[in-house]
Amino acid sequence: MSSLHASLAEKFNADEARTNWHDQTLWWVRQKRDRAANMLVEWEQLRQWASDIKDHTLSNLHNYLLEFEKNAQDNGIKVHWARDGEEHNRIIYEIIQAAGIKKIVKSKSMLTEECHLNPYLQHKGIEVVDTDLGERIVQFREEAPSHIVLPAIHLKKEDVSNTFHQHLGTEKGNNDPQYLTHAARLHLREKFVQSDLAITGVNFAVAETGGIVVCTNEGNADMGAHAAKIHIACMGFEKIIPKAEHLGVFTRLLARSATGQPITTYTSHFHRPAPGQEMHIILVDNGRSRQLGRDDFRNSLKCIRCAACFNTCPVYRRSGGHSYHTAVAGPIGSILNPNLDMKANADLPFASTLCGSCSNVCPVKINIHEQLWKWRQVISAEGLTAPSKKMGMQLMAWVLSKPAVYRFSGAAARWILRTLPFLAKNRKLNPWYKQRELPEAPKESFMEWYKKQQS
Amino acid sequence: MYTVGLFVPCYVDQFYPQVAIASLQLLEKLGCKVVVPLNQTCCGQPMANSGFARLSAGCDKNFVRNFTGFDYIVCPSGSCALHVKEHLESTEEPGTANKIRSSVYELTEFLTDVLNVTEWKGRFPHRVGLHNSCHGQRGLQLSSMSELVAPAFSKPVQLLRQISGLHLLLPERSDECCGFGGTFCVFEEAVSVKMGKDRIQEHERNEVDYITGGDMSCLMHLQGILKRKNSVVQVLHIAELLNACYE
Ligand code: SF4
User: Fold this and answer.
1) Contact B138 A394 (CB under 8 A)
2) How many whole angstroms from B187 Cα to the centroid of ligand 1?
3) A119 in contact with B at a CB cutoff of 8 Å?
4) What is the dihedral of CA A193, A198, A203, A206, to 10 degrees?
5) Which of A80, A136, A254, A334 is close enough to A348 for a disulfide, judged by CB 3.0 to 4.6 Å?
6) A264-290: per-residue pLDDT in tens?
7) Is A406 on the interface with B (CB under 8 A)?
8) What CATH number is attached to the domain comprising B169?
9) pLDDT (tens digit per residue) in A28-45
10) Is B170 a residue whose pLDDT tops 60?
11) Residue among A52, A367, A309 at smallest CA distance from B86
12) What value of ipTM does the predicted structure carry?
């Protein structure tokens, strides 16, 4: 029985040319990241600092959150606390209702994806327009983002052209990126102007100042927040950093890790509402305090959502974001999502070869591949692996703990492979054999050979 | 003279005896006293990586019983060596388990770091591609890693460069995973094979005669794909290659 990730990945791989294209595109981003990292001799030191600052913050989160709340309130920002996604959505809806607003623009926020805000608001009859270009494209197509930094990376120019032709009336078959971006730009400008409320994400929230920082390349967060009467910034509570002086460590790492740029085009600091404007910040838990309580997994909360682990992951590049069937895909998603719903996401920690490349690129030094290994132990202990797998493993453990049984089984297996190869050479029953030949079974094992030599 | 316990991974014992034979012969030629504990089976990695580390106590016990009392334990597999280093446990003999964990070496690092081998008499006049296996590379740090900003080095490359006639060709993505991944190779068959095919394509572009490496498990996976497409490229474990060059 193949897992959900495995079967979605198999579908993705059915179009090999497209898989190659996806792999190469993301590898190119990884290479840009390598070049940018190698320009800084202090790169590894920066990673260490970032990791240390985050570790310290997570250990003192309670105090920093209260400090942040107080300073933000003193600045005139309204601060809300949300236990989970539902409460987060409700708070936003209440703000919208109180102001009698129907049209909303939103810049990229993985948190609102995690909380399923768009469908919630649409259900209430409110139009939400995603203003990040990639997000807008997937929104038109009624798809989920497939990558946390490059939401439409699974799509080619032709796909975008078709989508825009359908939704924006662009010329059919015109795949020119400049032409298409221009059309999107005109469309989004109109939405910015019409909207009375802007929702943004948060990259960093500084406890010392009560301000937030939003990093984008398109400036869409700024357009939205400046044009609207109300600005709501939504953040998972792990986005806190203690002081403004720590910010430089993270902004230097973030864009280099994400796309290989020295810094994002826009790094916008919001400290207080503009005159006549209203500003809200929602601090969201949604399972984070549970993760904080898991010793083996707490430091997954250090993540700054740069997606370097996606771009380097040989499995992600060849299975696509949608195969992870969650808001946050990739290696980090595979250690965050089992915390949100262990049963539904029990397949994800197994969607990895544990090659360890993710841990090496991570700018905040999360031991991602070790956590994947640890989640496997938790998931199997909770009985969430297939019963057949469990039985197989129990049998294997028994055989391997008994040298005589092991020798007998090894010889038997080799004998079967030599004499009755058709038993193993079945493409339906043996996934190994589907696209690979079996190793040849020698008459003698090494131990048999060795004993003969000795005698 | 060192006394070395030869740790033979179970699948090498059963399917690739020539790799263990080459390791044994090579270490003996280099002056080690090699002991092969006869009741060894497996390090327990297949269970642990599948989420069943809790079932590996029997394996661990057997491993400790077999590998007590050596100066060094050498294994022609980075992955199995790493597993023992990171996960071997013994409630009865924690001290012995500790000692074992710190004396386990993967074959190439044993050659470069302990035996300090620098010269090979034989020649290997072929075009050879190297596959860096992840657990050896990133886990045991047998070579520098492309993700890190750090000085470059590689223990297997150091050895291969010492062999005359050998034309070493590294793939462009020098340390991308081949997709074997233990049970991953069957549970995620499509991605596993695609990853293997992509590795092979780079080596084929380099027109290599052999793909060598320190882990037969990765090579077995690549070999399966190569054979299915009737490729002329062969896989050869680094122990076999080096043993052929040491008269
Ligand atoms: S886990 Fe690390 S590499 Fe992955 S997105 Fe988060 S910060 Fe970036």
Assistant:
1) no
2) 26
3) no
4) 110
5) A334
6) 999 999 999 999 999 999 999 999 999
7) yes
8) 3.40.50
9) 999 999 999 999 999 999
10) yes
11) A367
12) 0.96
Burial class (CB in 10 A: 0-12, 13-18, 19+), B92: exposed
B90 CB near a chain A CB, below 8 Å? no
pLDDT for the residue numbered A1: 54
Q: What is the DSSP string of A338-398?
A: HHH-TTTTTTGGGS-----HHHHH-TT---HHHHHHHHHHHHHHTT-S-HHHHHHHHHHHH
The span from the CA of A22 to the CA of A237, in Å, is 33
**A368 alpha carbon to ligand 1 midpoint, in Å?**
9
Residues 6+ apart with CB under 8 A from B195: A314, A315, A318, A353, B176, B177, B178, B179
Percent of chain A with pLDDT over 70: 100
pTM of the model: 0.96
Q: Report d(CA A258, CA B141) in Å as an integer.
A: 25
Based on the fold, state whether residues B46 and B145 are members of the same structural domain. no
* Nearest C-alpha in B relative to A375: B51
* Residue B120 within any structural domain of the chain: no
Rounded to the nearest angstrom, the distance between the alpha carbon of A148 and the centre of ligand 1 is 10
Tell which of B113, B146, B161 closes a domain. Answer: B113
Can you give the pLDDT at residue A397? 87
Q: Domain for residue B198, yes or no?
A: yes
Structure tokens of A399? Answer: 């055989």
Of A346, A381, A416, the residue at which a domain comes to its end is: A381
Asked if residue B145 and residue B229 are part of one domain, the reply reads: yes
pLDDT, residue A333, reads: 98
Q: B121 in a domain, yes or no? A: no
What residue of B is the nearest CA neighbor of A441?
Answer: B15
Interface check for B1 against chain A (CB to CB < 8 A): the answer is: no
The Cα A381–Cα B53 span in angstroms is: 10
CA of A305 to the centre of ligand 1 (A): 5
CA–CA dist A300, A181 (Å, integer): 35
Task: Give residue B151's pLDDT.
Answer: 96
Per CB-CB distance under 8 Å, the chain A contacts of B174 are none
Enclosing domain of residue B181: 127-244
Cβ-based neighbours of A29, under 8 Å, separated by 6 or more: A150, A259, A260, A311
Q: Nearest 5°: phi and psi at A206?
A: -100, 115
B37 Cβ under 8 Å from any chain A Cβ = no
Q: What is the DSSP letter of A423?
A: G
Q: How far apart are CA A83 and CA A184, in angstroms?
A: 36
Q: Does residue B82 lie within any of the structural domains?
A: yes
Is the separation of the CB atoms in A88 and A282 below 8 Å? yes
Domain's final residue, options B87, B113, B139: B113
Question: B83 with B182, same domain?
Answer: no
On whether the CB atoms of residues A147 and A329 are closer than 8 A, the answer is yes
Domain count, chain A: 4
Question: Does the structure show a pLDDT above 90 at A400?
Answer: no
Q: What is the average pLDDT across A46-68?
A: 98
Band of the pLDDT at A452, cuts 50, 70, 90?
A: very high
Residue A372: predicted pLDDT:
98
B26 touches B246 (CB < 8 A): yes
Contact A377 B190 (CB under 8 A): no
pLDDT tens per residue, range A159-209: 999 999 999 999 999 999 999 999 999 999 999 999 999 999 999 999 999
Mutate to test the pocket of ligand 1, among A55, A150, A304 (most ligand atoms within 8 A of CB): A304
pLDDT for A420 equals 80
Enumerate the residues of chain B whose CB falls inside 8 A of the CB of residue A384.
none
pLDDT tens digit string along A230-271? 999 999 999 999 999 999 999 999 999 999 999 999 999 999
A101-160: per-residue pLDDT in tens?
Answer: 999 999 989 999 999 999 999 999 999 999 999 999 999 999 999 999 999 999 999 999
